[in-house]
Protein backbone atom coordinates (compact mmCIF):
# COMPACT_ATOMS: atom_id res chain seq x y z
CA UNK A 1 0.00 0.00 0.00
CA UNK A 2 1.26 3.48 -0.82
CA UNK A 3 1.99 5.58 2.26
CA UNK A 4 1.40 8.91 0.49
CA UNK A 5 -1.10 9.13 -2.35
CA UNK A 6 -1.85 12.31 -4.29
CA UNK A 7 -4.48 12.12 -6.96
CA UNK A 8 -5.01 14.96 -9.39
CA UNK A 9 -4.36 17.60 -6.74
CA UNK A 10 -5.19 21.14 -7.73
CA UNK A 11 -4.87 24.34 -5.78
CA UNK A 12 -5.91 27.81 -6.84
CA UNK A 13 -5.09 30.99 -4.93
CA UNK A 14 -7.17 34.11 -5.16
CA UNK A 15 -5.41 37.43 -4.99
CA UNK A 16 -6.84 40.88 -5.43
CA UNK A 17 -5.37 44.07 -6.83
CA UNK A 18 -6.42 47.71 -6.71
CA UNK A 19 -7.99 49.73 -3.91
CA UNK A 20 -11.22 51.15 -5.26
CA UNK A 21 -11.73 48.97 -8.32
CA UNK A 22 -10.63 45.69 -6.85
CA UNK A 23 -9.91 42.89 -9.24
CA UNK A 24 -9.71 39.29 -8.12
CA UNK A 25 -7.12 37.18 -9.85
CA UNK A 26 -6.88 33.42 -9.73
CA UNK A 27 -3.47 31.80 -9.72
CA UNK A 28 -3.24 28.07 -10.33
CA UNK A 29 -0.31 27.00 -8.16
CA UNK A 30 -0.82 23.24 -8.54
CA UNK A 31 -2.49 21.85 -11.65
CA UNK A 32 -3.37 18.19 -11.31
CA UNK A 33 -0.49 16.59 -9.45
CA UNK A 34 -0.59 12.81 -8.92
CA UNK A 35 2.04 10.53 -7.37
CA UNK A 36 2.48 7.76 -4.84
CA UNK A 37 5.20 7.18 -2.27
CA UNK A 38 5.81 3.67 -0.95
CA UNK A 39 6.74 2.64 2.58
CA UNK A 40 10.33 3.46 3.56
CA UNK A 41 10.91 5.37 0.35
CA UNK A 42 12.64 8.75 0.08
CA UNK A 43 10.72 10.54 -2.62
CA UNK A 44 11.79 13.92 -3.96
CA UNK A 45 9.70 16.70 -5.43
CA UNK A 46 12.11 18.69 -7.50
CA UNK A 47 11.31 22.00 -9.09
CA UNK A 48 12.26 25.67 -9.38
CA UNK A 49 10.91 28.37 -7.07
CA UNK A 50 7.18 28.86 -7.60
CA UNK A 51 6.72 25.45 -9.23
CA UNK A 52 4.13 24.34 -6.65
CA UNK A 53 6.29 22.18 -4.35
CA UNK A 54 5.39 23.89 -1.08
CA UNK A 55 1.72 24.15 -2.02
CA UNK A 56 1.66 20.42 -2.74
CA UNK A 57 3.35 19.57 0.56
CA UNK A 58 1.02 21.90 2.49
CA UNK A 59 -1.99 20.08 1.06
CA UNK A 60 -0.50 16.75 2.11
CA UNK A 61 0.19 17.91 5.68
CA UNK A 62 -3.39 19.28 6.03
CA UNK A 63 -2.47 22.98 6.15
CA UNK A 64 -4.19 23.72 2.85
CA UNK A 65 -7.39 22.28 1.44
CA UNK A 66 -7.06 21.28 -2.22
CA UNK A 67 -9.29 23.11 -4.68
CA UNK A 68 -9.93 19.69 -6.21
CA UNK A 69 -8.44 16.21 -6.21
CA UNK A 70 -7.65 14.09 -3.19
CA UNK A 71 -4.74 12.93 -1.08
CA UNK A 72 -4.23 10.29 1.58
CA UNK A 73 -1.44 9.65 4.05
CA UNK A 74 -1.31 6.13 5.52
CA UNK A 75 -4.83 5.70 4.20
CA UNK A 76 -6.23 8.80 5.95
CA UNK A 77 -7.81 11.52 3.86
CA UNK A 78 -6.00 14.85 4.36
CA UNK A 79 -9.25 16.83 4.15
CA UNK A 80 -11.70 14.59 6.02
CA UNK A 81 -9.35 13.13 8.64
CA UNK A 82 -6.74 15.83 9.28
CA UNK A 83 -6.14 14.91 12.94
CA UNK A 84 -5.38 11.28 12.09
CA UNK A 85 -2.92 12.47 9.45
CA UNK A 86 -1.26 14.96 11.83
CA UNK A 87 -0.67 12.29 14.46
CA UNK A 88 1.38 10.28 12.00
CA UNK A 89 3.42 12.88 10.20
CA UNK A 90 6.35 15.15 10.96
CA UNK A 91 6.77 18.41 9.09
CA UNK A 92 10.03 20.30 8.71
CA UNK A 93 10.47 23.38 6.58
CA UNK A 94 13.53 25.34 5.65
CA UNK A 95 14.49 28.80 6.81
CA UNK A 96 14.52 30.41 10.21
CA UNK A 97 10.78 30.60 10.80
CA UNK A 98 8.66 28.12 12.73
CA UNK A 99 10.42 28.18 16.10
CA UNK A 100 9.92 30.36 19.17
CA UNK A 101 12.96 32.62 19.25
CA UNK A 102 12.43 33.85 22.79
CA UNK A 103 12.39 30.34 24.22
CA UNK A 104 15.38 28.06 24.58
CA UNK A 105 15.82 25.11 22.23
CA UNK A 106 14.84 22.81 25.08
CA UNK A 107 11.68 24.80 25.89
CA UNK A 108 10.70 24.73 22.21
CA UNK A 109 10.98 20.95 22.18
CA UNK A 110 9.15 20.57 25.50
CA UNK A 111 6.26 22.71 24.26
CA UNK A 112 5.96 20.87 20.96
CA UNK A 113 6.34 17.47 22.66
CA UNK A 114 3.23 18.36 24.65
CA UNK A 115 1.39 19.57 21.53
CA UNK A 116 2.30 16.39 19.69
CA UNK A 117 1.01 14.23 22.52
CA UNK A 118 4.33 12.67 23.59
CA UNK A 119 3.63 11.02 26.98
CA UNK A 120 5.11 13.04 29.86
CA UNK A 121 7.50 10.29 30.97
CA UNK A 122 8.90 9.82 27.47
CA UNK A 123 9.43 13.49 26.74
CA UNK A 124 12.81 14.06 28.37
CA UNK A 125 14.57 10.93 27.06
CA UNK A 126 13.12 11.54 23.58
CA UNK A 127 14.24 15.17 23.62
CA UNK A 128 17.72 14.19 24.84
CA UNK A 129 18.01 11.61 22.08
CA UNK A 130 16.93 14.10 19.41
CA UNK A 131 19.26 16.83 20.70
CA UNK A 132 22.06 14.31 20.38
CA UNK A 133 20.89 13.26 16.92
CA UNK A 134 20.77 16.79 15.51
CA UNK A 135 23.93 17.93 17.29
CA UNK A 136 22.39 20.50 19.61
CA UNK A 137 23.34 18.77 22.85
CA UNK A 138 24.94 21.29 25.18
CA UNK A 139 23.26 24.27 23.48
CA UNK A 140 19.68 23.39 24.39
CA UNK A 141 19.40 25.90 27.25
CA UNK A 142 20.30 28.88 25.06
CA UNK A 143 17.57 31.05 23.59
CA UNK A 144 16.86 30.23 19.95
CA UNK A 145 17.31 33.90 18.93
CA UNK A 146 21.05 33.34 19.46
CA UNK A 147 21.17 30.21 17.29
CA UNK A 148 22.77 30.19 13.86
CA UNK A 149 20.61 29.39 10.85
CA UNK A 150 21.93 25.84 10.77
CA UNK A 151 21.13 25.31 14.45
CA UNK A 152 17.59 26.57 13.95
CA UNK A 153 17.21 24.22 11.04
CA UNK A 154 18.40 21.29 13.13
CA UNK A 155 15.97 22.31 15.87
CA UNK A 156 13.23 22.17 13.21
CA UNK A 157 14.24 18.63 12.38
CA UNK A 158 14.22 17.62 16.06
CA UNK A 159 10.76 19.18 16.43
CA UNK A 160 9.47 17.28 13.42
CA UNK A 161 10.67 13.95 14.86
CA UNK A 162 9.47 14.46 18.46
CA UNK A 163 6.51 12.10 18.20
CA UNK A 164 8.50 9.56 16.16
CA UNK A 165 6.25 9.87 13.09
CA UNK A 166 6.36 7.13 10.44
CA UNK A 167 6.07 9.74 7.65
CA UNK A 168 8.23 12.87 7.44
CA UNK A 169 7.73 15.83 5.09
CA UNK A 170 10.78 18.00 4.49
CA UNK A 171 10.20 21.23 2.61
CA UNK A 172 13.53 22.56 1.30
CA UNK A 173 15.27 21.75 4.57
CA UNK A 174 18.78 22.74 3.48
CA UNK A 175 17.86 26.11 1.99
CA UNK A 176 20.28 28.82 3.07
CA UNK A 177 22.59 26.49 4.99
CA UNK A 178 26.35 26.60 4.59
CA UNK A 179 27.88 23.60 2.73
CA UNK A 180 28.99 21.82 5.91
CA UNK A 181 25.62 22.34 7.65
CA UNK A 182 23.77 21.21 4.53
CA UNK A 183 25.91 18.09 4.25
CA UNK A 184 25.29 17.19 7.91
CA UNK A 185 21.58 17.66 7.44
CA UNK A 186 21.57 15.52 4.30
CA UNK A 187 23.23 12.66 6.17
CA UNK A 188 20.58 13.06 8.88
CA UNK A 189 17.84 12.88 6.21
CA UNK A 190 19.43 9.74 4.76
CA UNK A 191 19.36 8.17 8.23
CA UNK A 192 15.58 8.68 8.44
CA UNK A 193 14.86 6.07 5.77
CA UNK A 194 17.39 3.75 7.38
CA UNK A 195 15.18 4.04 10.49
CA UNK A 196 12.23 2.90 8.36
CA UNK A 197 10.54 6.24 7.86
CA UNK A 198 8.88 7.32 4.64
CA UNK A 199 10.18 10.71 3.55
CA UNK A 200 8.88 13.26 1.07
CA UNK A 201 11.52 15.88 0.34
CA UNK A 202 11.13 19.01 -1.74
CA UNK A 203 14.22 20.70 -3.06
CA UNK A 204 15.54 22.67 -5.96
CA UNK A 205 19.08 21.37 -5.46
CA UNK A 206 19.81 18.74 -8.05
CA UNK A 207 22.75 17.08 -6.33
CA UNK A 208 20.67 16.81 -3.16
CA UNK A 209 17.89 15.02 -4.99
CA UNK A 210 20.43 12.84 -6.81
CA UNK A 211 22.23 11.90 -3.61
CA UNK A 212 19.20 11.30 -1.39
CA UNK A 213 16.13 10.28 -3.33
CA UNK A 214 15.05 6.79 -4.35
CA UNK A 215 12.59 8.33 -6.78
CA UNK A 216 11.91 11.84 -8.03
CA UNK A 217 9.11 13.81 -9.55
CA UNK A 218 10.06 16.99 -11.39
CA UNK A 219 7.42 19.67 -10.99
CA UNK A 220 7.20 22.77 -13.14
CA UNK A 221 4.43 25.36 -13.34
CA UNK A 222 2.22 23.27 -11.07
CA UNK A 223 2.48 20.05 -13.05
CA UNK A 224 4.62 16.95 -12.80
CA UNK A 225 6.66 16.80 -15.98
CA UNK A 226 8.66 13.63 -15.23
CA UNK A 227 8.85 10.93 -12.60
CA UNK A 228 11.32 8.13 -11.94
CA UNK A 229 14.63 7.26 -10.36
CA UNK A 230 17.48 9.78 -10.69
CA UNK A 231 19.11 7.37 -13.16
CA UNK A 232 16.01 7.09 -15.35
CA UNK A 233 15.68 10.87 -15.45
CA UNK A 234 19.31 11.18 -16.52
CA UNK A 235 18.49 8.79 -19.36
CA UNK A 236 16.03 11.39 -20.72
CA UNK A 237 19.00 13.43 -21.90
CA UNK A 238 21.45 10.57 -22.48
CA UNK A 239 21.23 11.13 -26.24
CA UNK A 240 22.29 14.74 -25.91
CA UNK A 241 25.46 16.78 -25.64
CA UNK A 242 25.81 19.92 -23.56
CA UNK A 243 27.87 22.87 -24.73
CA UNK A 244 28.82 25.39 -22.03
CA UNK A 245 29.68 28.90 -23.24
CA UNK A 246 30.90 31.52 -20.82
CA UNK A 247 29.68 34.94 -21.98
CA UNK A 248 29.82 38.52 -20.77
CA UNK A 249 26.66 40.47 -21.48
CA UNK A 250 24.49 37.96 -23.32
CA UNK A 251 20.93 39.22 -23.68
CA UNK A 252 17.55 37.61 -24.18
CA UNK A 253 17.72 38.41 -27.90
CA UNK A 254 20.94 36.41 -28.36
CA UNK A 255 19.50 33.53 -26.35
CA UNK A 256 16.47 33.48 -28.64
CA UNK A 257 18.81 33.38 -31.66
CA UNK A 258 20.52 30.30 -30.16
CA UNK A 259 17.16 28.65 -29.53
CA UNK A 260 16.31 29.11 -33.20
CA UNK A 261 19.30 27.07 -34.42
CA UNK A 262 18.27 23.76 -35.92
CA UNK A 263 19.24 20.86 -33.66
CA UNK A 264 19.26 22.91 -30.44
CA UNK A 265 16.99 21.23 -27.86
CA UNK A 266 17.20 23.79 -25.08
CA UNK A 267 19.12 26.87 -23.97
CA UNK A 268 19.55 27.86 -20.32
CA UNK A 269 21.45 30.80 -18.84
CA UNK A 270 23.04 30.83 -15.38
CA UNK A 271 24.39 34.05 -13.89
CA UNK A 272 27.94 33.75 -12.56
CA UNK A 273 28.96 37.11 -11.04
CA UNK A 274 29.94 39.26 -14.05
CA UNK A 275 29.58 36.41 -16.51
CA UNK A 276 26.70 34.30 -17.78
CA UNK A 277 27.06 30.61 -18.46
CA UNK A 278 24.99 29.62 -21.50
CA UNK A 279 24.10 25.90 -21.48
CA UNK A 280 23.00 24.56 -24.84
CA UNK A 281 21.65 21.03 -25.22
CA UNK A 282 21.68 19.41 -28.62
CA UNK A 283 21.51 15.93 -30.11
CA UNK A 284 24.61 13.82 -29.50
CA UNK A 285 26.99 13.77 -32.44
CA UNK A 286 25.81 17.10 -33.79
CA UNK A 287 28.74 19.55 -33.93
CA UNK A 288 27.19 22.95 -33.25
CA UNK A 289 29.93 24.83 -31.39
CA UNK A 290 31.00 27.03 -34.31
CA UNK A 291 27.39 27.73 -35.29
CA UNK A 292 26.57 28.72 -31.70
CA UNK A 293 29.57 31.06 -31.51
CA UNK A 294 28.58 32.55 -34.84
CA UNK A 295 25.18 33.45 -33.41
CA UNK A 296 26.89 35.16 -30.46
CA UNK A 297 28.70 37.55 -32.74
CA UNK A 298 29.52 40.82 -30.97
CA UNK A 299 29.25 39.30 -27.49
CA UNK A 300 32.42 38.71 -25.48
CA UNK A 301 32.90 34.96 -25.08
CA UNK A 302 35.17 33.20 -22.56
CA UNK A 303 35.58 29.48 -21.96
CA UNK A 304 33.74 27.04 -24.25
CA UNK A 305 33.41 23.34 -23.42
CA UNK A 306 31.33 20.34 -24.44
CA UNK A 307 30.43 17.64 -21.90
CA UNK A 308 28.14 14.69 -21.06
CA UNK A 309 24.69 15.57 -19.68
CA UNK A 310 24.00 15.31 -15.92
CA UNK A 311 20.81 15.07 -13.87
CA UNK A 312 20.86 18.85 -13.70
CA UNK A 313 20.71 18.99 -17.50
CA UNK A 314 17.78 16.59 -17.43
CA UNK A 315 16.08 18.88 -14.95
CA UNK A 316 16.84 22.00 -16.96
CA UNK A 317 15.48 20.29 -20.03
CA UNK A 318 12.32 19.16 -18.26
CA UNK A 319 11.63 22.45 -16.53
CA UNK A 320 12.47 24.50 -19.58
CA UNK A 321 10.53 22.49 -22.11
CA UNK A 322 7.65 21.07 -20.07
CA UNK A 323 4.40 22.25 -18.53
CA UNK A 324 2.79 25.06 -20.47
CA UNK B 1 -5.92 17.92 28.38
CA UNK B 2 -5.35 19.90 31.58
CA UNK B 3 -1.61 19.27 31.28
CA UNK B 4 -1.60 20.63 27.73
CA UNK B 5 -3.43 23.77 28.90
CA UNK B 6 -1.04 24.33 31.81
CA UNK B 7 2.13 23.65 29.79
CA UNK B 8 0.86 25.86 26.96
CA UNK B 9 0.02 28.64 29.41
CA UNK B 10 3.45 28.39 31.06
CA UNK B 11 5.43 28.64 27.84
CA UNK B 12 3.23 31.35 26.38
CA UNK B 13 3.61 33.36 29.58
CA UNK B 14 7.38 32.86 29.45
CA UNK B 15 7.47 34.11 25.87
CA UNK B 16 5.29 37.12 26.62
CA UNK B 17 7.42 38.21 29.55
CA UNK B 18 10.51 38.08 27.36
CA UNK B 19 8.92 40.33 24.74
CA UNK B 20 10.25 43.87 25.25
CA UNK B 21 6.97 45.37 24.01
CA UNK B 22 4.92 43.35 26.49
CA UNK B 23 7.36 44.19 29.27
CA UNK B 24 7.14 47.94 28.72
CA UNK B 25 3.39 47.62 28.23
CA UNK B 26 3.00 45.73 31.49
CA UNK B 27 5.10 48.17 33.51
CA UNK B 28 3.90 51.49 32.13
CA UNK B 29 0.25 50.95 31.26
CA UNK B 30 -1.04 50.13 34.74
CA UNK B 31 0.57 53.26 36.10
CA UNK B 32 -0.86 55.32 33.26
CA UNK B 33 -4.37 53.91 33.67
CA UNK B 34 -4.25 54.26 37.43
CA UNK B 35 -3.00 57.86 37.30
CA UNK B 36 -5.76 58.92 34.91
CA UNK B 37 -8.41 57.20 37.04
CA UNK B 38 -7.11 58.60 40.32
CA UNK B 39 -6.88 62.15 38.98
CA UNK B 40 -10.45 61.92 37.67
CA UNK B 41 -11.93 60.52 40.85
CA UNK B 42 -9.88 62.60 43.28
CA UNK B 43 -11.72 65.79 42.33
CA UNK B 44 -14.83 65.01 44.31
CA UNK B 45 -14.36 61.52 45.64
CA UNK B 46 -13.61 60.03 49.00
CA UNK B 47 -11.56 56.95 49.87
CA UNK B 48 -14.25 54.58 48.59
CA UNK B 49 -14.48 56.16 45.16
CA UNK B 50 -10.69 56.13 44.82
CA UNK B 51 -10.64 52.41 45.57
CA UNK B 52 -13.52 52.06 43.05
CA UNK B 53 -11.30 53.77 40.48
CA UNK B 54 -8.26 51.70 41.42
CA UNK B 55 -10.11 48.44 40.89
CA UNK B 56 -11.54 49.71 37.59
CA UNK B 57 -8.07 50.73 36.39
CA UNK B 58 -6.76 47.29 37.35
CA UNK B 59 -9.37 45.50 35.23
CA UNK B 60 -8.67 47.99 32.41
CA UNK B 61 -5.11 46.68 32.49
CA UNK B 62 -6.27 43.06 32.29
CA UNK B 63 -8.53 43.86 29.34
CA UNK B 64 -5.90 45.97 27.56
CA UNK B 65 -3.29 43.23 27.93
CA UNK B 66 -5.67 40.66 26.48
CA UNK B 67 -7.48 42.53 23.70
CA UNK B 68 -4.54 44.25 22.04
CA UNK B 69 -1.88 41.64 22.59
CA UNK B 70 -4.08 38.66 21.65
CA UNK B 71 -4.30 40.07 18.14
CA UNK B 72 -0.65 40.98 17.88
CA UNK B 73 0.42 37.63 19.37
CA UNK B 74 -1.55 35.66 16.77
CA UNK B 75 -0.19 37.92 14.06
CA UNK B 76 3.31 37.30 15.43
CA UNK B 77 2.71 33.54 15.31
CA UNK B 78 1.78 34.01 11.67
CA UNK B 79 4.87 36.13 10.95
CA UNK B 80 7.18 33.67 12.67
CA UNK B 81 5.65 30.70 10.86
CA UNK B 82 4.63 29.07 14.13
CA UNK B 83 0.88 29.36 13.50
CA UNK B 84 1.17 26.69 10.83
CA UNK B 85 3.21 24.47 13.12
CA UNK B 86 0.59 24.84 15.86
CA UNK B 87 -2.25 24.04 13.45
CA UNK B 88 -0.32 21.05 12.08
CA UNK B 89 -0.06 19.52 15.54
CA UNK B 90 -2.58 16.79 16.37
CA UNK B 91 -3.86 18.54 19.52
CA UNK B 92 -7.29 20.17 19.26
CA UNK B 93 -6.52 23.73 18.25
CA UNK B 94 -8.80 25.19 20.94
CA UNK B 95 -6.48 23.69 23.58
CA UNK B 96 -3.53 25.28 21.82
CA UNK B 97 -5.13 28.69 21.44
CA UNK B 98 -6.78 29.12 24.84
CA UNK B 99 -3.50 29.13 26.85
CA UNK B 100 -2.21 31.91 24.56
CA UNK B 101 -4.99 34.28 25.57
CA UNK B 102 -5.15 33.18 29.21
CA UNK B 103 -1.38 33.82 29.45
CA UNK B 104 -2.03 37.34 28.27
CA UNK B 105 -4.81 37.85 30.76
CA UNK B 106 -2.38 36.62 33.43
CA UNK B 107 -0.02 39.42 32.50
CA UNK B 108 -3.06 41.61 33.00
CA UNK B 109 -3.34 40.23 36.53
CA UNK B 110 0.02 41.78 37.22
CA UNK B 111 -1.50 45.06 35.97
CA UNK B 112 -4.15 44.80 38.68
CA UNK B 113 -1.52 44.34 41.41
CA UNK B 114 0.68 47.11 39.97
CA UNK B 115 -2.29 49.48 39.85
CA UNK B 116 -3.14 48.92 43.50
CA UNK B 117 0.51 49.30 44.55
CA UNK B 118 0.87 52.48 42.47
CA UNK B 119 -2.34 53.84 44.01
CA UNK B 120 -0.97 53.18 47.47
CA UNK B 121 2.49 54.64 46.83
CA UNK B 122 1.63 57.64 44.66
CA UNK B 123 -1.86 58.54 45.83
CA UNK B 124 -2.02 57.04 49.34
CA UNK B 125 -5.09 54.92 48.56
CA UNK B 126 -5.71 52.42 51.31
CA UNK B 127 -6.61 49.02 49.92
CA UNK B 128 -9.24 47.24 51.98
CA UNK B 129 -11.51 44.36 51.04
CA UNK B 130 -14.82 43.52 52.71
CA UNK B 131 -15.27 39.93 51.41
CA UNK B 132 -11.80 38.46 50.98
CA UNK B 133 -12.90 34.96 49.82
CA UNK B 134 -15.19 36.44 47.18
CA UNK B 135 -12.47 38.88 46.10
CA UNK B 136 -9.89 36.11 45.80
CA UNK B 137 -12.28 34.21 43.55
CA UNK B 138 -13.54 37.22 41.60
CA UNK B 139 -10.09 38.37 40.43
CA UNK B 140 -8.95 35.05 38.86
CA UNK B 141 -12.47 34.47 37.50
CA UNK B 142 -12.32 37.86 35.78
CA UNK B 143 -8.83 37.15 34.45
CA UNK B 144 -9.92 33.79 33.04
CA UNK B 145 -13.19 35.11 31.60
CA UNK B 146 -11.30 37.95 29.91
CA UNK B 147 -8.91 35.29 28.61
CA UNK B 148 -11.97 33.44 27.27
CA UNK B 149 -13.20 36.63 25.56
CA UNK B 150 -9.69 36.95 24.10
CA UNK B 151 -10.01 33.37 22.86
CA UNK B 152 -13.20 34.29 21.00
CA UNK B 153 -11.38 37.25 19.45
CA UNK B 154 -8.39 35.06 18.62
CA UNK B 155 -10.63 32.72 16.61
CA UNK B 156 -11.28 35.62 14.23
CA UNK B 157 -7.55 36.46 14.18
CA UNK B 158 -6.84 32.92 12.95
CA UNK B 159 -9.35 33.24 10.16
CA UNK B 160 -8.67 36.83 9.04
CA UNK B 161 -5.13 38.10 8.64
CA UNK B 162 -6.10 41.70 9.37
CA UNK B 163 -8.43 41.01 12.30
CA UNK B 164 -5.71 41.97 14.80
CA UNK B 165 -6.89 45.54 14.28
CA UNK B 166 -10.20 44.50 15.84
CA UNK B 167 -8.46 43.87 19.17
CA UNK B 168 -7.10 47.41 19.22
CA UNK B 169 -10.47 48.78 18.18
CA UNK B 170 -12.25 47.05 21.05
CA UNK B 171 -9.85 48.15 23.76
CA UNK B 172 -11.34 51.56 24.65
CA UNK B 173 -15.10 50.99 24.05
CA UNK B 174 -15.02 48.02 26.44
CA UNK B 175 -13.62 50.25 29.20
CA UNK B 176 -16.81 52.29 28.97
CA UNK B 177 -19.32 49.60 28.11
CA UNK B 178 -18.22 47.31 30.96
CA UNK B 179 -18.17 50.10 33.53
CA UNK B 180 -14.48 49.97 34.39
CA UNK B 181 -14.36 53.70 35.07
CA UNK B 182 -17.92 54.99 34.77
CA UNK B 183 -20.96 53.33 36.41
CA UNK B 184 -23.17 51.58 33.87
CA UNK B 185 -26.15 53.58 35.12
CA UNK B 186 -24.65 56.66 33.44
CA UNK B 187 -24.60 55.04 30.01
CA UNK B 188 -27.56 55.23 27.56
CA UNK B 189 -30.13 52.44 27.90
CA UNK B 190 -29.33 50.86 24.55
CA UNK B 191 -25.74 50.18 25.64
CA UNK B 192 -26.78 48.03 28.61
CA UNK B 193 -27.69 44.84 26.70
CA UNK B 194 -24.21 44.97 25.18
CA UNK B 195 -22.72 45.31 28.67
CA UNK B 196 -24.72 42.35 29.92
CA UNK B 197 -23.28 39.93 27.37
CA UNK B 198 -19.72 40.93 28.18
CA UNK B 199 -18.10 38.88 30.95
CA UNK B 200 -15.79 41.72 32.09
CA UNK B 201 -18.91 43.70 33.13
CA UNK B 202 -19.83 41.04 35.67
CA UNK B 203 -16.23 40.39 36.67
CA UNK B 204 -15.79 44.09 37.38
CA UNK B 205 -19.00 44.14 39.43
CA UNK B 206 -17.95 41.05 41.37
CA UNK B 207 -14.55 42.54 42.21
CA UNK B 208 -16.06 45.84 43.35
CA UNK B 209 -18.90 44.25 45.29
CA UNK B 210 -16.47 41.99 47.13
CA UNK B 211 -13.98 44.77 47.86
CA UNK B 212 -16.38 47.59 48.70
CA UNK B 213 -19.18 45.49 50.22
CA UNK B 214 -22.24 44.06 48.52
CA UNK B 215 -23.40 40.80 46.96
CA UNK B 216 -20.64 39.64 44.60
CA UNK B 217 -21.81 36.04 44.10
CA UNK B 218 -24.46 36.52 41.36
CA UNK B 219 -22.02 38.71 39.40
CA UNK B 220 -19.28 36.15 39.85
CA UNK B 221 -21.54 33.37 38.65
CA UNK B 222 -22.56 35.33 35.54
CA UNK B 223 -18.91 36.18 34.80
CA UNK B 224 -17.92 32.50 34.93
CA UNK B 225 -20.99 31.40 32.94
CA UNK B 226 -20.30 33.93 30.17
CA UNK B 227 -16.62 32.89 30.07
CA UNK B 228 -17.73 29.26 29.63
CA UNK B 229 -20.18 30.34 26.91
CA UNK B 230 -17.38 32.15 25.04
CA UNK B 231 -15.31 28.96 25.13
CA UNK B 232 -18.24 26.87 23.87
CA UNK B 233 -18.98 29.30 21.02
CA UNK B 234 -15.25 29.65 20.27
CA UNK B 235 -14.72 25.89 20.04
CA UNK B 236 -17.69 25.48 17.68
CA UNK B 237 -16.65 28.41 15.49
CA UNK B 238 -12.93 27.55 15.60
CA UNK B 239 -13.27 24.36 13.60
CA UNK B 240 -15.09 26.25 10.86
CA UNK B 241 -12.62 29.15 11.06
CA UNK B 242 -9.70 26.75 10.71
CA UNK B 243 -11.28 24.97 7.76
CA UNK B 244 -11.91 28.35 6.13
CA UNK B 245 -8.33 29.43 6.88
CA UNK B 246 -7.01 26.23 5.26
CA UNK B 247 -9.29 26.75 2.26
CA UNK B 248 -8.28 30.38 1.82
CA UNK B 249 -4.60 29.87 2.63
CA UNK B 250 -4.38 32.52 5.36
CA UNK B 251 -2.46 30.51 7.98
CA UNK B 252 0.86 31.79 6.70
CA UNK B 253 2.12 34.86 4.95
CA UNK B 254 3.83 32.90 2.20
Q: Terminal Cα separation of chain B, in Å?
A: 32 Å
What is the succession of H and E elements of chain A? EEEHEEHEHHHEHEHEEHEHEEHEH
| Gyration radius of chain A, in Å | 23 Å
What's the N-to-C terminus distance of chain A?
Answer: 32 Å
Query: Could you give the count of β-strands of chain B?
Result: 0
Largest sheet of chain A: 6 strands, mixed
Global mean pLDDT of chain B: 83
Tally the helices of chain A.
Answer: 11
Shape of chain B: globular
SSE class of chain B: mainly alpha
Question: Can you describe what's shown?
Answer:
Chain A has about 325 residues and is an alpha/beta fold. Chain A is built from 11 helices and 14 strands. Chain A has a 6-stranded mixed sheet with strand order 6-7-8-3-9-10, sandwiched between helices. In chain A, a hairpin with a 5-residue loop joins strand 1 and strand 2. In chain A, helix 3 packs across helix 4 and helix 4 runs antiparallel to helix 5. Chain B contains 10 helices and no strands. At the A-B interface, helix 2 and helix 3 of A face helix 1, helix 4 and helix 10 of B.
Summarize the structure.
The complex is a heterodimer of chains A (324) and B (254). Chain A is 33% helix and 32% strand.
Write the layout of secondary structure elements.
The complex is a heterodimer of chains A (324) and B (254).
Chain A: E1 4-17, E2 23-37, E3 42-46, H1 53-60, E4 68-73, E5 76-77, H2 82-88, E6 89-93, H3 105-115, H4 120-134, H5 149-160, E7 167-171, H6 179-194, E8 198-203, H7 206-212, E9 215-220, E10 223-228, H8 230-235, E11 240-248, H9 252-259, E12 264-272, E13 275-283, H10 289-295, E14 300-307, H11 311-321
Helix pairs in contact in A: 3-4, 4-5
Chain B: H1 2-17, H2 20-42, H3 47-79, H4 82-87, H5 93-123, H6 132-159, H7 164-177, H8 192-196, H9 199-212, H10 216-248
Helix pairs in contact in B: 1-5, 2-3, 2-5, 3-5, 3-6, 3-7, 3-9, 5-6, 6-9, 6-10, 9-10
Amino acid sequence: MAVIEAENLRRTYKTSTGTIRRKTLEVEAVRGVSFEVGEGELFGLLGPNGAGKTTTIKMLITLLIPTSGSARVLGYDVVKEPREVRKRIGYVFGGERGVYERLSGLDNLRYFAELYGVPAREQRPRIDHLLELVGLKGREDERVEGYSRGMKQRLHVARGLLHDPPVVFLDEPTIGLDPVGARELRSLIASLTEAGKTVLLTTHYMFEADALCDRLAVIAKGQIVAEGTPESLKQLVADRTVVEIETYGVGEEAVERLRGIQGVASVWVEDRDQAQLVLVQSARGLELTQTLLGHLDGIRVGRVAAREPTLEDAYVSLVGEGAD
Amino acid sequence: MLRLLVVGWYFQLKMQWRDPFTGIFAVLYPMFFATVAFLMFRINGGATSLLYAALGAGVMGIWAATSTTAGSALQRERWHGTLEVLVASPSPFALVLLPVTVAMATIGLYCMVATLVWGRLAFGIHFSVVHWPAFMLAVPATVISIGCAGFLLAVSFVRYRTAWALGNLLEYPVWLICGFLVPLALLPGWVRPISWVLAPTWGMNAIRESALGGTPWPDLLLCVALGALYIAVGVVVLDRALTAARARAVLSLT
